[in-house]
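To close the section, here is one more complete example, presented without commentary so you can practise reading it yourself. The ligand is nicotinamide-adenine-dinucleotide.
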Amino acid sequence: MKYALIGCGMISAAHIKAALESGLEIAALCDLVEENREKALSLLPEEKRQGVKLFADYRAMLAEVRPELAAVALGSGVKRAIACDCMDAGANVIVEKPIALSLEDADAMIECAKRNGVKLCVNHQLRFVPSVRAVKAAADGGDFGKMFHAAAQVRRNRNKAYFDVGPWRGTWKNDGGTLMNQCIHYTDLLQWILGDAEEVFAYTDNLCHPYTEAEDMGLALVKFKSGAYALIEGTVNVYPNNLSDSMAFFGEKGTVSVSGKFLDQAERWQFAEGPASLPESLEKYAVVDLGAGHTPLYRDMIQAVEQGREPVCSGAEGRKALELVLGIYESAARGTPVRFPLERGSTMDYVGRFEK
Ligand SMILES: NC(=O)c1ccc[n+]([C@@H]2O[C@H](COP(=O)([O-])OP(=O)(O)OC[C@H]3O[C@@H](n4cnc5c(N)ncnc54)[C@H](O)[C@@H]3O)[C@@H](O)[C@H]2O)c1
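Output:
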């Protein structure tokens, strides 16, 4: 399958690795900055660099290369335009998370995929982590009994050097804050495992990043339609560096607590009638290791295209993760609980919110 990557910045190495590991034919790399295009090209084994074309203009790339699969990995405010141009040119698209920064843009992308008969996938790659798939299987298989509540903690540090790398970072127009950028993986996982959210109450603030527009901390309480609850804690203010990411699930007959960048360290994995450890759950639910990072998501997307089914991380799923973050933003700004579904929502509704 002929593949092109648009946006050769920080996350591009993960895309190139996944493209190579899933057997795609890397036909083009596109970035406005020549140095970034060259750096991305250098990540390919020498024998695979020959046929790869480099472009500054993605439209020229689409016209000349006609990729069957394009990955869009750049600031979130421009994803709609670029992803839709790709899909209008007949390409299936993997778009980095978040899918977009407004429900209107997400809906337009989902509709564009439908209209063109192509697949749209959002990069929520944590869904493919074995421990996360085992939690999902245990929840679906009834090992937890009634699910009471879950917690997601994203305790990181992002300093000025991080925001200086991309002028889009931390802006309402192109990124949002830590809930939208770092925590959206978790608003995705919570809804994947617990079902759709019903209501949220939240606080968000910008406590120590005067050079960014959006929040650097958010605390949210979510009630799900299933009757379960969740607590989301997201910060990029941890002194002096990243602490950990973690998730916990508390059910009537089971408790799971996992942490680490890939949620693969189990502090507690205990069920009254089910597996007594993560390895036992992996065996019970035949969860095989599909590879690290973006690779399993790429493989799933390729299969989805070939089999004419939706990818695990479809546009509609990416929209749900976005809607929960936008609900958090609305609740924090209004100081009241907010119910789902939202009628509308965009990061642009919050321009100036943290201006001192
Ligand atoms: N899935 C994950 O775990 C994960 C991790 C990090 C970043 N991301 C996401 O990936 C995306 C990119 O993040 P990043 O950290 O790589 O950003 P970055 O700023 O490092 O890179 C973005 C690149 O896009 C290029 N670019 C901008 N506009 C362009 C255009 N019109 N045409 C071609 N190239 C253009 C820039 O020159 C830059 O090289 C964001 O959406 C971010 O949220 C996802």
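Once you have examined the tokens, check your reading against these statements. Residues 6-11, 30-33, 36, 58, 73-74, 76, 78, 96-97, 123, 125, 165-166, 181 surround nicotinamide-adenine-dinucleotide (CB under 6 Å). The chain has a mean pLDDT of 97.
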